[in-house]
Amino acid sequence: MEAKRLTTNPITPAGFTLLALLVFTSGFQQQAIDKLHNFERLVLNSVVGPESLAFDHLGGGPYTGVSDGRILKWQGQGLGWADFAVNSKHRDYLLAVITGDATGRLMKYDPETKKVTVLIRGLAFPNGLAISNDNTFLLIAETSTCRVLKYWLQGPRTGTIKVFAELPGYPDNIKRNPRGEFWVALNQNKLQLNGQTAPEQHPVALRLSQEGKVLEVLVGGAMTSISEVEENDGTIWFGSVDMPYVGVYKL
């Protein structure tokens, strides 16, 4: 039987992005959507790209690596950022996505033998690791494929890998929170990277359960190009590839 043609109004790129977001979020047991319009900015001086964040065991920090290769430490309000160390400059991450580079590897380093073992080859821009609370598996944010992979470290499936979560955008790191859940930062949604305009309500971060279910979606606003979400002591800290500040959002 011949299929009937459906006549509909054309959907603009912005409308398509919003529709894709609604379809994505409605398919999961979602607890909340927060619009990140009101958050504190820890402004950097003459540099951009506070891409990754970390705290020391005494609660100091955050520390962040920035685009010119330095690592900075937050000294507190009134004191701002101070140089802490010098690392190296970032590679051209956008080129890796566009060319479909799949030369990434997951490697294990043994500090006793000082040997490195390659566990997985052929990853498409692996861009962040997080280990589960019980150390039975680790998660890999694979940027080019817009997904998170799960690799078993213990148990009958040790050494095997599967897709843990499909994402609506390009992940740029994954961090475990104090409850054993996982925050995935979304650097760009798919339409943005293709040069089209997305509405303000695009997802910038997801909170995933230990089973890969979406628990929370944080939606855009002024905070864009998110590279990392670090939850610490009731506060979410946002890194970014190209913004001149670190975002701070109270839960």
From TrEMBL:
Keywords: Glycoprotein, Signal, Vacuole. Residues 83-155 form the Strictosidine synthase conserved region domain. GO terms for cellular component: endomembrane system; vacuole. It holds the Pfam family Str_synth. It comes from the Eukaryota. InterPro entries: 6-blade_b-propeller_TolB-like, Strictosidine_synth_cons-reg. Transmembrane segments: none annotated. The keyword Membrane does not apply. Its main location: other. Residues 1-27 form the signal peptide. One of its GO terms (molecular function) is hydrolase activity. It is found in: Vacuole. Coiled coil: none annotated. Belongs to the strictosidine synthase family. PANTHER family: OS09G0374900 PROTEIN, STRICTOSIDINE SYNTHASE-RELATED. This is Calcium-dependent phosphotriesterase superfamily protein isoform 2. It comes from Cocos nucifera.
